[in-house]
Request: fold
Amino acid sequence: MLIEKTVWPQNKKCAVMISVNLDAEFFGKIYYPDINVDEGDILRLGRTSINYGLPKLLNVLNKYNVKATFFIPGAVVKRYPEAVASIVKHGHEIGCHGNNHEILAHMTIEEQRATLREAKELLTKAAGKELKGFRMPEGEISEETLALVKSMGFSYSSSLSDDDVPYVREASGLLELPIHWELFDLPYFVFTFDPPIPQGQSRSARMDDVLKNWLFELEGARRFGTLLNLQIDPQAVGEQGRIFMLEKLLDEIKETDDVWIATGEEIAEYFKK
Amino acid sequence: MIWQNSAKSAFALSFDMDGDTIWRNKTKRLPNGSSYIKGPSIGMYGPKKGALRILDILDEFSLKSTWFIPANIVMEHPDVVEKILNMGHEIGHHGLDHTGEYGATFDEQRERIEHCQEIFQKYTGRKALGFRPTGALLPETEKWIYSEGGFVYSSAGISGEACGWYTVDGEITHAVNIPCRDEQMDDYVQTVLNSYPAVLVGMPRIAPYENAYFNWVHEIDGMVKYGNSGATAFHPQISGSPGRAILFRRFCEYLVSNRNVWCASCIEIAKYYKAMMEGRDDAH
Reply:
């Protein structure tokens, strides 16, 4: 075999990280970076995700005894402090997802430092402990961004897509826990009329089809020994009709005792050794 | 045309190992675009992981294939190219950087194509015999490519359904056309995604992986039914993900069990065609 298999704790076949991007209404910036998130469908979907999606998600994670990693923009802590407190109370990990879901690569390094510092302060206060994880707000970053993230004391990034197991990024020396679009629920389902999201207004995917893609990725992770890094936005899979997808996936993951389910922090700790 | 092993169709698994070229070409016009690493990281998955996983699967089924690689990627990933060649696969011409810019005149275009061939020669010890263009070429350039230029076949996207002599302006060249059904025989178009820049335009949903798989099988059925032949344009940066690799493996299983299909590299198909057709009245 040309790819050497990663050794996981307790000789598990593969690893699964459940991560949640708690964007609330800032999800709109994935599609329109300059959008006003304080009006219309964008704001309504954001509030729905916090009020309905998040509690259901926390219940399911609790039921399956799974700890997740929540990547949160600083501005979301300011807007929804009680929601973030409920996540912390359940013992999940808190990570940084920018401050206002900005495109960091558009900013100077000083501007990036200022905005990430503000986010880090807000999130650290809410978490009651040091943050380890950073996930870039969807948009773009540079090697400089990751060097800055490392210098600010973060132990890992979970932003890039050039691998399927954790690796140390050469330029910055920062550990990367890779992500892939096909394992992110939001782009399969999100839909608004005004502004059009997605831009081409394609129909939402069939839930069973999306689940099947994920189950193929789980089968692949088991076969090839990789990290399956699931990304959830509570407005997508946290919705009443879709929450079964997460339950089914967790059923499959827990079916046999061969998957290491871990938070970003736990994976980073393992790779530090 | 009856192919090797009495097969009704010849079929090449071929791969466009574009790496980050297609992403750099999209991001370079955006603010600070040359410093971006997210989009390009999607492309880098190809040479870093996807290609290796695919090579292992091909090896499992003893399938030989063709890899079209921009010359810049050959330079940046000589180790991967070496593995491809060592395992008995073919590498083909796929431009310098996937910009599709071959130049405005015949001389510029020829120079660009030869420059890539020099890179192939330097890094792999051989020149490419097959050509999969990444952009438009002048008719006189095409005539040159498929005669004095030394290329034995063309496998371009949207180039019909049948294997035959490659023609330019209705004139037969010395090269063989191996149609690349790129809009069907790939999972890049169906399952690639990015938000900034939006890929694909309009950000359509990622398709169910199985949709892509079942379409491949229907394409093969049609190809056999009409006695045609062709090639794929799989992108290792997409097809090599753990989950998609499960379906690629299933496709390989299907192909080796289908007696109507002779699976070979593009160059094997081109050489077989030439050997069978040359000397006949309708050949040169």
Observations:
- Chain B touches chain A through 44 residues (CB under 8 Å).
- Residues 8-277 of chain B form a domain with the TIM Barrel fold (CATH 3.20.20.370).
- The mean pLDDT of chain B is 96.
